[in-house]
Amino acid sequence: MRTYDIINAGSKNRYMANGRIVSNSGRSIQLQNLPANHLSTLDEARELLKLGAFDMLETLYGNTPDTLSQLIRTMLIPKPGHEFVVADFSAIEARVLAWLAGEQWRLDSFNAGADIYCASASQMFGVPVEKHGVNGHLRQKGKVAELACIAEDQLVLTNSGYRPIQTVTKSMLVWDGSAWVKHSGVVRRGVRRTMTFEGLTATPDHLVWNGYRFVPFEYYAAMKDSANGGRDIIYSGLRRVYDIRNCGPRHQFLVNGHIVHNCGYGGAAGALIAMGALDMGLKESELPDLISDWRNANPRIVQYWWDVDKAATDTVKTGNLNQVGLITFERYAGELFITLPSGRKLAYASPRLEPNRFGRMGITYMSIGTNNKWQRLETYGPKIVENSVQATARDLLAEAMLRVRDAGYDIVLHVHDELCVEVPIGSITVDALCKLMSVNPSWAEGLPLNADGYACPYYQKS
Description:
The chain is of the alpha+beta class. 30% of the residues lie in helices and 28% in strands. It has helices spanning 42-51, 54-61, 64-70, 92-101, 104-112, 116-125, 139-144, 217-224, 269-274, 287-297, 299-318, 381-406, 430-437, and strands spanning 14-17, 20-23, 82-89, 150-151, 155-158, 161-164, 174-175, 180-181, 186-197, 200-202, 207-209, 214-216, 234-244, 252-255, 258-261, 322-324, 327-332, 335-339, 345-355, 361-368, 374-379, 410-415, 418-424, 451-456. A six-stranded antiparallel β-sheet has the order 16-17-18-19-20-21, covered by helices on one side. The protein has a four-stranded antiparallel β-sheet with strand order 22-23-3-24, covered by helices on one side. Strand 14 (252-255) and strand 15 (258-261) form a beta hairpin. The relative contact order is 0.14. Mean pLDDT is 81; it is low at 1-5.
């Protein structure tokens, strides 16, 4: 795939692309593509590298190129007497979706800091659910309705080479173990607890191919590492996580040497299979009932999908202005515009109604397709909601950055939902920065924002 950049875009060396602020190729480093670090002994590895002790690095860590790649982030250091304090929005897209759709029980759960799996199961089955407690067996069914995910920076094999999962675009084909296949794009799933085994970092519930069938990653690792007492399994803490939707007919792709299952749209059967439903002992014939349970438990989200679909379709068809909750659809100058809660607009070029893959009239618009050419693409309610959620998450980060800057703190970098400030050692606590991040803008009343963070002597992934 041909790629491009803009050189020296102003004094800040950055510009807007697809609604996201990116660095240009002038003086700035490309932070989005830096490999993640998983080493529990970063300090020691850095010292060995600084001493040039490559033989010792090889002896202790086994894979020198991988170790060196994990140390790239750590080359970014604060000036003397200073430290980095990093803050990252928690599950921002899940929170924004619940807020936009008005799914109150989810908002209440986020506000209370509840276990979302237990809350989901309780809502689905109408009984109290406690982890390791009353009706605890139902938690797994609630969990399977929440997306399993792959950690940021895990390398997906594409027809353009290995790419960090968050940088895979719909114009790339992905390898499913047998063939190059199309997909429906990368989806961000916030921050979740992950584990690392055999070079792969993912949530414990993500499905991995074990040579015979797909099994949860945690089960896969436990079985393979049983002779070693589980010593090679690393529970790597909170990470930003992603998945790829609808990867070909087999719904699978290759990441860090492992074939993993993908997710689908709108909580349908393919998505539940990808989240481990069959490996819980459920039969595929049972999945429609589980889907129905989830949708019954989340009626406002489901209604929101199709209210958005109806409003966008009517605006394309008639040119009428339509409002759904906090977003507005309008058409002018031949384009479809969505006004977000922040007041910012998203644009869909040259929209029109055409028969779609669901056998009904749906919206198409012009964009870059899988062949890297300008072509007509489909969209519909759940996808438009996803676009609006991700764009709103971006607006929240932008306002948080202004708030942090106005408080007197020097933001030295930001990536996706994360920002990093350089401050005199001990001058601001992690909690203080997270509180600044979590202040609601005037246009986001009622959104349960939260952030996690850490302080560090060099840039890293906590």
